[in-house]
Amino acid sequence: MTMIYVEWKTEYEIGNSEIDAQHSFLFDIANRILRVLGTDEQILLLSELFDELFEYTQNHFRDEEVIWLPLGEEIFQAHRNKHLLLRAQLEAIWLSDSIFNRAKTAQSLYDWVSGLLHHVLNFDRGMNRQLLERV
Known about the structure:
Strand content: under 5%
CATH architecture: Up-down Bundle
Number of strands: 0
Number of domains: 1
CATH topology: Four Helix Bundle (Hemerythrin (Met), subunit A)
Structural class: mainly alpha
Radius of gyration: 16 Å
Distance between the termini: 49 Å
Order of helices and strands: HHHH
């Protein structure tokens, strides 16, 4: 099986350097997970890498939510709900019975990152634009 990787591109940036750097690092963690799948180190490293991804995702979402809060409670809650869904999807990948199935885990993680990218391009970018318009 050809391994798939996810690439952060500057065209994905939303215009907030802190958040853009965090988005890039989320892609980096996902790629480290994808690289270890199917290797002798998989069993040793997978739990550690998923823990890092969970923790970093949680911190990133919290940082974003603080930044978006000035846009108002309704917008903030709608965005937070999207974060909760992404978090639940990531947890479902880890809790899946087939977590050690290289192909299934790789595809699930790739799909999650694709969903994250959709979120970045369609929601975070718009949120940042709204925030800049208020300044």
